Every structure is written in C-alpha cells, then in structure tokens.
Amino acid sequence: MNASVIARIAKIVPLVVVAAVGVTACGPTEGGASVAASAPASAPAAASSATPGAGAVPAVPAPAAPTAEAAPTAAAPAGQAPAAAGAATAKTDVKAAAKAAAKPAAPKAPAPSGGSGIGITFGGLSEGGKIGLNDLVPFTVTWKNNDATGTRSVAPVVATQQYEGAPCTMVLAMADGTLERKDASGWKTLDHLSQGGGMDYAGTADDAAFTLAAGESRTIEFRMRLSLANRPGQITIEADAPVPHSKNYLDMAKAELNATVVDSHSPEMLSVMPPAKGVITTDPIPFSFRVSSPDGTAGLRPRVTVWSSEGPTPNDVTVEARVGDVWKPVELKDECGLVTVDPNVPGVRDGNTVEYTFRATFKEAPKYGADVDIRVSAESNGHQSVQRSVFLRDAR
What we know:
Strands 14, 15, 17, 18, 21 and 22 form a six-stranded antiparallel beta sheet that branches. Strands 16, 19, 20, 23, 24 and 25 form a six-stranded antiparallel beta sheet that branches. It is built from two helices and 25 strands. The protein is mainly β. A hairpin with a 2-residue loop joins β23 and β24 (383-384). α1 packs parallel to α2 (76-102). The N and C termini lie far apart (114 Å). The protein is elongated and about 75 Å long.
C-alpha cells in the first residue's frame, strides 16, 4: 500500500464514524423513552431527550460517498454504518406514524347549550304541537348550568313572541291571554303573556331569580291561556336566562318552542278574490271572500280591516257591502290604528258556505308609494277565523 492511499484512509474513517453517531442520536422516541436505531456494535448510540428540542444532538451531515478508488476493503464495515442506521430510523419512523394514525383522536367536550353556559329545555309541550284557544295549557321549563367553571344566576323569563293571530297586528302583535308561574307560595299571574316592542319583558322575572351551581338545574311550572280574542296561527314561546337586575342581554341564553294555535269552532277562510286593479285611486275597490263555519252559518259575521301607511280614519274611506244588487254603506270604527268593519250582512249562502262582497273607496288617493292593506276575516259566536290580506300598492 503506497503513501497516498494510507493518507486517504486516515481522512475518511473519522468522518464516517461521526456521521454514524449523528444519525443514531436522531432516532424517534416512544412512550417518553428514546428509541435507538439499530446499528453495528462498533457505532455508539446517543440518548435522545423526551421533550422535543431539549438536549437533542444535532446531526452531522454525512460526507460524500468515497469513490471506489478511495474505499479500501478494510474500511468497508465502518462505511456501512450510516446506511444501516438510516434504514433503521426510517423503519421506526414509519412504524411510529402508523401507530399514531391508528390511535383514535380524543373526543371533544360538548359545547354548553345557550349563551353564558345555560341550557334551556321545555317540557309538557312538543315542538310543532297544538294549543287550543281558551284552553289552560300547562308546561315546564328547565334551566341548567352547563358551565363547569362556576355558578350562574338566572331570572326565569318566559313569554310568547309577536303572534300573527293577535287581536291587533298592525303595531305590536301581542297575544291576548294570561301566563302563570308556580312559585313557592302558589300560582302567580304574570304581568304579560307576550313580548312587546323592546326588551322590557326580560326584566319581568327578577323576583323569581335563583343561582345554579355547575351542573345544577331548576325546573319551573307554567300555564297559559290564549283568549278567544286571538285567531288561529303559528305561535312561538320563548324562555330566557338573563342575569337578574341586568340590562345587558347580548349573551342571554334562550330557547324557543313553536306551536300551532287551533280553535275547533273557528270559521274557515276558503278563498279571497282580490281586486283586479292594483292601483289605488278614488275609484271603488271591490273584493270578495268565502267562509264556512263548523257551527253553521247562522252566527257568521264578516270582518274587514283597512289600513294605510298614511293612517286613514273613518273619514278617509268608505266601505260598502253588497246585499243583493245594492251596495249598502257599513259603519266604520277606528280601532287599533285601523278602520274596521264588522257588519251584520247576510252574504250569499251556499250550503255551509257564505260569500261576502265589499268595496272600499278612498276619498283621496294615497300618495305615491303608500301601501294599503285590506284584510278580511270572519267571526262566529266569539270565535275568530284567520285573516287574509289583499295588498294594494299605489303605483301611479
């Protein structure tokens, strides 16, 4: 062996050994303990820290592979150590990745229902169920503190939302009736059944406020009665959890229950024939509608309501009913911001069906852009039908 070959061996062997040590020290960890890559006994393994990035031994880049001329037979075992360590590390990495992928992810904790961690549920009434007019309807509401971080104070507020079948719907559609809450001393009639135009209703239950520890719940009994002044329709009951004596309702928890208000004695609106002309002038506007009643037609009375965004009074409009071949004026009333007509006219009877025909005449044509709403319904022995509308827009 000549001198040049011996010099090359002296330069290559130390670098190969260092490269083997660096690769071995970067083996993966499992269960908090370092997993050393398999290597020949002549290649020492360095311990790895269980905490990523703590005490790790940086890997030294492996030198370029020596040429065949520079790789003597005696140095081959040492030169194979980096390849063996790299293969072992790759095999261990694949195994660890497969094990991590097979491990199911930890389930997420359910988010608290309702704002401020308060969950609210109804009992005794089902979603989409029926509520009979003039029936005493019992139900319960449960407030639960789903927030595990501490106690929560709750004012148990319950009220109906704006109701399409309310006696007056042009300004505030507030349901008519009573709502009672069962307190320790017995049933208490609450001041309001329905929400109004603001958030005043949210402060109506401070006298019944209570505190819930984490996970604790409180159930309260209620009962309500919708009077016959209401009409059938879709109603929503809302339960809230405001902080007592607070005016901040932004994060107030609430729950809603939707129900159908029914009346087995209510007249049924069969059809509405709107006027052919959609422009409001001073010309008469004819319209008609057909009604039936489960209690017979003897007690039927039609009802017409005229509203305009300009606020008409009985002096601004004339309403006439057709009786036979004659148009007869009917008395008007200024009620609930509306001009209402409740005439005792026979209509045209056909079995258990009655058809009524009216016409309305404005003394002055509403201004451009003004809306006119003519609503028709019927009443039978104190029971109201639903309202149907004929919308007329001034398009002159």
